[in-house]
Amino acid sequence: MGTQGRNSGQRRGSAHDRILDAASRRFYTEGIAATGIDAIITEAGVAKMSLYNNFASKSALVEAYVERRHAEWLALYATRRATAASPVERILAVFDAYIDHAEDAYDHGFRGCGLLNAAAELPAGDAGRHAVRTHKEEVEGILRGELLALTTPERADALATHLSFLLEGSMARAGLAGAPDLLHTSRALAAQLLTTA
Amino acid sequence: MGTQGRNSGQRRGSAHDRILDAASRRFYTEGIAATGIDAIITEAGVAKMSLYNNFASKSALVEAYVERRHAEWLALYATRRATAASPVERILAVFDAYIDHAEDAYDHGFRGCGLLNAAAELPAGDAGRHAVRTHKEEVEGILRGELLALTTPERADALATHLSFLLEGSMARAGLAGAPDLLHTSRALAAQLLTTA
DNA sequence: GCTTAAATATACCGTACGGTCTAATTAAGC
DNA sequence: GCTTAATTAGACCGTACGGTATATTTAAGC
């Protein structure tokens, strides 16, 4: 940001947005390294210099992509949480948000969690990897917070970790299967776990 | 395979093996797309033509890498299973094999499950992706088989899926954290789940 | 309507990629 | 010791990569 000033909102379909849209689609469905700058600008219908006027480098674009996917999920989660009536439903809203996000991508090639896939392409110390780690810890933190309405802090901790593993594990398997069905399975397992505990 | 015939065993440190060794290390720690052919042959101490005499292409090398990692895990699992004394221990042997495999990589940069990371780099219909899917289903099948000694087929099915999610989820989170600790956490959660059920 | 900034097209840069060719060398099998 | 196959070094290929330079056009703000 910074220099855009008064132009902050920008007109509909600004170069910045179209680029990030196209990059997000390609990064998710084809992978990051497999997606070249030229493919992005072609799909965005934009000049190459417009990309480099809006993003410092490809890896800056990747960072924006990662942040955006996490923000998308947070928005989906906020919607689900707003209509959840009980503590258990508020916990399951996290699973619902995962399902919503997955079903967004299902039509045009579901390949699992975009953040985990991105991290898998990044080297060990990369900033993007750390960002993904933080996002996943945030999700577990949300789970823990909601669980505190149900049980002791100690059990909330353990259960939050357990549910996070169910979430990420089912997402990994669902991505391999190419369909979000397994996410419903993990939601059901979580629901069962919460009612028996 | 096929044409090697009498030379099947090959001498120690054959080009084929040194190439696959080097490629496996690089693919795992740096990622597949980020690892060039030149980096592999340099690390293997081998001529470029030796690579193409042993592997048809880079993606053939990737397939060999995927198969090899799965075979490594199967071997670790077989060892763990052989000394497991009870049905529960035989189930936890699957978790132990995951831990063993992870700790192999911990010294030189732990980045989670090599198979899942590889799949994350492959396009939607790729053969390697399907291979990874099959391997993960095989692991779940092993869990289901061991669980049949403990409970009904229906509950074994559900529990196998549950344990598989715990496994893969904890592996994903552990990879992001850069340390295998969370695998011990999921093993403990699994043990608890098995004793209370 | 003038100014200022964003976005454009196009040519270009060096480099690295996956992969091939050739010719020479090494080593194993009989 | 001869044959046969594996391995080697190194030049080479076309292509695609991420990124830059420049000059021009488009469009928004006042």
For this entry, give a set of tags.
homodimer, Arc Repressor Mutant, subunit A, Tetracycline Repressor, domain 2, 2 domains, 9 helices, 0% strand, DNA-binding, DNA binding (chains A, B)
Description:
Two copies of one chain form a homodimer. The longest helix of chain A has 25 residues. The relative contact order of chain A is 0.11. The first copy, chain A, folds into two domains: 43 residues, Arc Repressor Mutant, subunit A (Orthogonal Bundle); 135 residues, Tetracycline Repressor, domain 2 (Orthogonal Bundle). Chain A is an all-alpha fold. Chain A is elongated, with a radius of gyration of 18 Å. Chain A has nine helices and no strands. The first copy, chain A, starts with 14 loop residues before the first helix and ends with a helix. Helix content of chain A is 74%, strand content 0%. Chains A and B meet through helix 6, helix 7, helix 8 and helix 9 of A and helix 6, helix 7, helix 8 and helix 9 of B. The structure holds a DNA duplex (30 and 30 nucleotides).
